Amino acid sequence: MQEQIETHKYSEAEVNKSLADSEKIEFLRQMVRIRRFEEASLKYYNAGKMGGFLHLYIGQESIAVGTASLCGDNDHIITAYRDHGHALAVGMSMNECMAELYGKKTGCSKGKGGSMHFFAPDKNFWGGHGIVAGQTPLGLGLAYGLKYNEVKGASLCFLGDGAVNQGSFHESLNLAQLWELPVIYIIENNGYSMGTSQKRSSAFNNCLAGRGDAYGIEWDVGKGNDIYEVRAKTKEAMDRAHNDSQPTILEFDTCRYQGHSVADSNAKKYRSPEEIDYYKENYDPINVWKNSLLEEGVIDENDYKEIDNAAKDEAKESATFAEESPFPEPSAITDDVYFEVDNQTESGKQGKHFFHD
Amino acid sequence: MQEQIETHKYSEAEVNKSLADSEKIEFLRQMVRIRRFEEASLKYYNAGKMGGFLHLYIGQESIAVGTASLCGDNDHIITAYRDHGHALAVGMSMNECMAELYGKKTGCSKGKGGSMHFFAPDKNFWGGHGIVAGQTPLGLGLAYGLKYNEVKGASLCFLGDGAVNQGSFHESLNLAQLWELPVIYIIENNGYSMGTSQKRSSAFNNCLAGRGDAYGIEWDVGKGNDIYEVRAKTKEAMDRAHNDSQPTILEFDTCRYQGHSVADSNAKKYRSPEEIDYYKENYDPINVWKNSLLEEGVIDENDYKEIDNAAKDEAKESATFAEESPFPEPSAITDDVYFEVDNQTESGKQGKHFFHD
Amino acid sequence: MALTLYRQALNRALDEELANDEQVVIIGEEVAEYNGAYKVTNGLWKKWGDKRVVDTPISEAGFIGMGIGASMMGVRPVMELMFFSFAYVALDQMINNAACVRYMSGGLINCPIVIRGPANAGTSVGATHSHTPENLFANVPGLKVVTPATAHDAYGLMKSAVRDNDPVYVMENTLLYGDPAAASDLPDDEFTVPIGSAEVKRQGTDVSLIAHGRSVIVALEAAKQLDEEKGINAEVVDLRSIRPLDEETILKSVEKTNRAVLIDENKPFCGVSSQIAATIQEKAFDSLDSPVLRVTSIDAPAIYCPPLEKEQVPNVSRVVDMVQKLG
Amino acid sequence: MALTLYRQALNRALDEELANDEQVVIIGEEVAEYNGAYKVTNGLWKKWGDKRVVDTPISEAGFIGMGIGASMMGVRPVMELMFFSFAYVALDQMINNAACVRYMSGGLINCPIVIRGPANAGTSVGATHSHTPENLFANVPGLKVVTPATAHDAYGLMKSAVRDNDPVYVMENTLLYGDPAAASDLPDDEFTVPIGSAEVKRQGTDVSLIAHGRSVIVALEAAKQLDEEKGINAEVVDLRSIRPLDEETILKSVEKTNRAVLIDENKPFCGVSSQIAATIQEKAFDSLDSPVLRVTSIDAPAIYCPPLEKEQVPNVSRVVDMVQKLG
Ligand SMILES: Cc1ncc(C[n+]2csc(CCOP(=O)(O)OP(=O)(O)O)c2C)c(N)n1
Ligand SMILES: Cc1ncc(C[n+]2csc(CCOP(=O)(O)OP(=O)(O)O)c2C)c(N)n1
Ligand SMILES: [Mg+2]
Ligand SMILES: [Mg+2]
After folding, report:
1. What domains can be seen in chain A, in order of their start residue?
2. Pairing state of beta strands B192-193 and B196-197?
3. CB atoms within 10 A of CB A63
């Protein structure tokens, strides 16, 4: 369990000192939006509006918001299936996200991806990936693309504490260091992979990020609930990526409040409700941030309520939008499989591409 | 390049001090047998007697012989495709090995495996595996089997310096440490994976074995050409396996004199012939060992000649044996696919197992 | 009489085999303390303890390869893949090691390993989680693949799989785990269903519906509807085992009905039904009154959209329509 | 006129595409300084330098996944698998990422990646190095698979593959690289062979021999022998592309000859020829005078023993015998 939070050790970091009040408020708004969106999605999931999995990010919002806040035009983000937070943090609308959960044509992935597969390449957001650690070589590839085209940018590739034990992640680490690629692996360590505590899944020295030592990769570990700390440590890594084209592994401690997915019937068995309650009470990223802004005099309680109400309304409206949106037509099942077919190029017209009856 | 060999630093190690002269001579004999066997196999390969690949172990003999010399009834060995040395070191006959290279019915694998796939489970030798690092989870499984059945033993799993970049190896390391399995990963670092030097393939701190730090696994690195050192360091790891059921990573520097495989047309391009010559001159494991035994007065030049001639004869005879052995019958193509079919059990008689015309 | 659900039948089979043979060990992600992501191993850890039921990190290549290595030594691991879709990160181990090591060693080594888990689409978990790789594995000589459709067969095939001395991949189905239509009335006494035997699940005269896995349940419903609404008397053949394959039962049925429609959740190109169609046309050519037709998944990655995914996988109305196309 | 070898044709195609498009980059084990394990990339590193031709560590999942990620950003990587058999350690990336990301993103992302390398048995490199996974990949919607049999097609298909905006897996053959029977007289001007078009490589009237990859060369020789020794005039159809598939050309041929023998180095169960047989019997049912027969690899892991492996893969005498079985 983390120690009681000190007043933000990293508030004086360069990248934080220069923050305008409006920016700080924006972080709060983003975190609240994520939480309210997810609460709404849970509600409508339980009402039978969605299928499949729903992995909620509640409790971890500061990481997506803090890291995304540093991203410029040439910085890119890719993550696993617990992707709603990152999607909203990069600027995707609640409407397109909620509609995706409903499987609607107006969803960000036209109802084809679902909860685990949100995408917005126009916002440098490359998904949303369901196979544990499967996104880690892709994140490396984004960095490869940047370096190949001599663009000064970084690829922020998120993964969970359980994902560090997949071989593809290690292969990626070796390549990242060997080829000096500007990728930042960000381990969101919420202490559990499904029902397995970190100590039952991973052998290590120091911490999970410390596995970087095997490859001589720079690494750091920090408190994930403190936006100041997330930003300060991520900024260092981004500088390393931008200026030296070097990879970094970051690890942020955090906590997911909900079960692994909505279908996690064991959510209250493998860890005690007290563990979560204690965290919520003392470390909740939204509370912590809200309290600092109150202390700093950047907002008052009323401002917060407004932000919160606006987020709730937005979430509710997104559900209405999703509800009222049409499902894709059955013929859409075979769209978006091949670029060349979709665009009816010469290549797309040659030969038979689909083989069902 | 290694430093000039000191007189064996490890000759006084417990495990070496107690060696009888006959044992020391036996090590020499084994190394010479491996070399002569492989020289013969190269000759007959070039004469068109074999197909496929032929990865020669020449230059690395001290590692197989030194490690195998420590193995008791419950210690097991598994390696990659460069497996002739390990096969002979565990006691397989030249005849069955050469016949395998010829693809003959009398081969250790009945002509089905070839050079990369020698096996002798009765001698605790589990192959011979062609997919780089594919044997590393299997080696873990051997250790699992030992521990599961509460047998005090170790699994010695060999791999190359290029194999350390496969994900399955890392997954195995984590599992080995997490579950305290008695596996010893032995990296035979000959500096190259095919034409790629180690520095072009691997990022690391310290050395390749040092990647064990990522998992808190004990590791050590040593000179591979010195049987005393190989035995001393392996013994420590085996004690750790036997007594504490803990894994180890060992790395031994070594040198392969031949190309990656016989078909390595670039063998003289990616490293200079001088690099090999220098090694041969100064570090050749057979020479080094022979010279110590001469110095120690354990053998004289004549003894060596006898050993050498016997090995050459044995190799030559194995080629005659192989030559005179029959190929398997065509019907053998579909034998050894299923245990149940081969043994015509009830299960093996049910349904159709093979689907060609 | 209390029916046993598919999930419970698997659980009972595993429990009994743990009792029957000390070398049997269950290994996989969340199989122990969590009781299994889909509760197939429910209660087994509590009953059998840490040694016999083992939770793993998310390292499929590592732990499945480990299981194969242990099986070479005589341990009999039953590995769970939380989804068979995750086989793709462990494929090298599952093909090159499990399927080839016996052969490459000239028969010196065998791998009595079971790898099991759900392999199906239809639950809106998206393309990466909805693969049906029975065709892919059955392509590989050295492997056995079974796809039980009912609790009875799930129980009997699982027991056969654990006792078999070759690698057997048991492909289950998340939709069948709790489906009353797949539940069975199991006898109290142990029994097995042999690997490599198909079963005629419904007798008929007009057309053979040949299916495996959940498609069998679809076929049975379709047969009922065809009977009631169209007066067509369909026979339903459940392959049960994909490799080895019971060609005899297939051919006998087609020789009787002279028509076949294959129902197959696989993607069509080189799916299991391609193989069955190729076989039927080859070996029952003169019995066929019309071409063998197929109802497969619509040929795209599994779509998330729940109502559309129900159209994507074979369903009753697509089967009924296809049977009528036979003319 | 100097014939171009299959290997040289690939080399020329890659060289030209490196020149045509700065986003094209060749990545793989030993492709640069070593000039390729099979010399397909010979000279390219020297000519194009470190940026365009890149050697990798032995980390197929890592570097292929990386290539897929880079392709999402607009880079056009041409990845070499030293053997396509090594795809099995990278399968998750090759299926779940390359094939599914366009779909799961509703068409927002595409992956213009080429993965190429030899995919064949017949060279005594053993079971683990002799896989022919064209059926496995062609099963996956989202992927394209081509299997050139001649230098002409290798050149033309490789260029099409590099220019295609979908993932294309080009399966070559170590036995064809230097085979004079696969060499072609290439024009000096650039050209492409469209993906998805089969070619009748020999006109005939009595039976259609349908094949892909090196089996086309076998089929052509068998056709010659059938003609000379048995007076049977066989047509040889080269699929060239497995997915997309040119069904039209296949069906046209069978409608003409009324008989088909498929020659396929795949293992038989759910091999490519299973799919072709299923298709022919479905769509040319009334044209068929006898069942579609198949000559595939003998159904076991690839044997090492060199003379036996020549029996294991399809060869001329097995094809000639099978054609005569048609009656
Ligand atoms: C290769 C693979 N194996 C297993 C799974 C099933 N699975 C999905 S999420 C998960 C736990 C991952 O935990 P962690 O990486 O800590 O991420 P978190 O869920 O905590 O965000 C598992 C086992 C999967 N999706 N992919
Ligand atoms: C997964 C995989 N990728 C590539 C290869 C081809 N290959 C065989 S050996 C080898 C080099 C391995 O080098 P190293 O591990 O150092 O062993 P060494 O040959 O030096 O003994 C390569 C690339 C393979 N067999 N398996
Ligand atoms: Mg976690
Ligand atoms: Mg090496």
Report:
1. 2-325 (3.40.50.970), 327-357 (no CATH)
2. antiparallel
3. 30
The residues near D146 (Cβ < 8 Å, ≥ 6 apart) are: D157, D160, D161, D168, D169, D170, D171, D195, D240, D241, D242
Q: What is the spatial distance between Cα D94 and Cα C88, in angstroms, rounded to a whole number?
A: 9
Pairwise CA distance, residues A77 & B143, whole Å: 40
Residue whose C-alpha is closest to residue C135's, from C312, C288, C277, C283: C277
Burial label, B324 (beta-carbon count in 10 A; 0-12, 13-18, 19+): exposed
| β-pairing verdict for D241-243 and D144-146 | antiparallel
Cis peptide before C141 (omega within 30 of 0): no
B261 Cα nearest atom in ligand 2: 19
Centroid of ligand 2 to alpha carbon of B271 (angstroms): 17
pLDDT tens column, A159-200: 999 999 999 999 999 999 999 999 999 999 999 999 999 999
Quick count: other Cβ atoms within 10 Å of Cβ B296? 11
Q: What is the value of pTM for the model shown? A: 0.98
State the CB neighbour count (10 A cutoff) for residue B46.
11
> How close C29 gets to chain B, by Cα (Å)?
13
Ligand 4 centroid from CA B259, angstroms: 11
Q: Tell me: ipTM over 0.90.
A: yes
Could you read off the pLDDT of C255-289 as tens digits, one per residue? 999 999 999 999 999 999 999 999 999 999 999 99
Q: What is the mean pLDDT of chain D?
A: 98
Domain ranges of chain C: 6-182, 199-323
CA dist D143 → A337, B312, B332, D103, D110 (Å): 9, 54, 36, 11, 11
Asked whether residue B57 carries a pLDDT value surpassing 90, the answer given is yes
Question: pLDDT tens digits, residue range C22-51?
Answer: 999 999 999 999 999 999 999 999 999 999
Convert the pLDDT of each residue in A240-299 to its tens digit.
999 999 999 999 999 999 999 988 878 888 999 999 999 999 999 999 999 999 999 999
Which CATH number describes the domain made up of D199-323?
3.40.50.920
Angle of helix D6-20 relative to helix D151-163, nearest 10 degrees? 30
Residues of D in contact with C278 (CB under 8 A): 273-274, 277-278, 281, 292, 294
Q: Within chain B, what is the greatest distance between any pair of CA atoms?
A: 67
User: Cα–Cα distance between B264 and B186 in angstroms, integer?
Assistant: 25
Tell me the fold of C6-182.
Rossmann fold (3.40.50)
For residue B203, CA distances in Å to A186, A217, B226, D75 come to: 20, 9, 27, 25
Query: Mind listing the pLDDT tens digit for each residue in D255-292?
Result: 999 999 999 999 999 999 999 999 999 999 999 999 99
At A151 the pLDDT is 98
Return d(Cα D169, Cα A7) in angstroms, integer: 55
Measured by CA distance, the residue closest to atom 11 of ligand 2 is: B193
| A357 pLDDT higher than 90 | no
